[in-house]
């Protein structure tokens, strides 16, 4: 017994179902294919995403280049350290050889001075 101003439960339920269907159809009809503004927004979002991906790729490439550069620098530093060690060893050998030569020359000189004193002493005794 539903009156004009008081719809029954089933009528309200069917009206709600019809309203939901109508809203869904309206939503589907208003998709990006039919709406130029929505298509433009979608294209703008796509452009932003593409630019973001490009920047990320550039950062990744730059990071890889920095890592390669740091690795090369480490290799160069290691090679320079090895070369410095070799040079230091060679210099130490040269210094040792010069010291031996200098000591030998000083010993010869001391012997010559001693021999000269000895000869002078012998000459005085005669």
Please characterize this protein's 3D structure.
This protein is mainly alpha-helical and 126 residues long. It has one domain. Helix content is 88%, strand content 0%.
Terminal residue distance = 167 Å
Name the assembly state: single chain
Helix content: over 70%
Instruction: Give me the Rg, rounded.
Output: 50 Å
Q: What's the total helix number?
A: 2
Low-confidence stretches: none
Provide the succession of SSEs: HH
The major β-sheet equals: none
Backbone structural class: mainly alpha
- The residue-averaged pLDDT reads 90
Q: What is the number of domains?
A: 1
Strand content: under 5%
Number-wise, the strands total: 0
Shape: rod-shaped
Condensed summary:
This protein is mainly α. It has helices spanning 9-29, 36-125.
Highlighted features:
126 residues; mainly alpha; 88% helix; rod-shaped
Set down the secondary structure blueprint.
Elements: H1 9-29, H2 36-125
């Amino acid at each position: 017994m539903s009156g004009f101003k008081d719809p029954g439960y089933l009528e309200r339920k069917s009206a709600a179902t019809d309203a939901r269907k109508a809203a869904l159809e309206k939503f589907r009809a208003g998709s990006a294919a039919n709406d130029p503004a929505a298509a433009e927004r979608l294209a703008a979002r796509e452009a932003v995403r593409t630019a973001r991906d490009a920047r990320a790729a550039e950062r990744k490439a730059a990071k890889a280049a920095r890592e390669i550069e740091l690795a090369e620098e480490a290799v160069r530093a290691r090679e320079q350290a090895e070369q410095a060690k070799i040079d230091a060893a060679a210099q130490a050998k040269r210094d040792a050889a010069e010291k031996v030569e200098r000591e030998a020359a000083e010993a010869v000189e001391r012997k010559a001075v001693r021999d000269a004193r000895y000869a002078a002493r012998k000459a005085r005794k005669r």
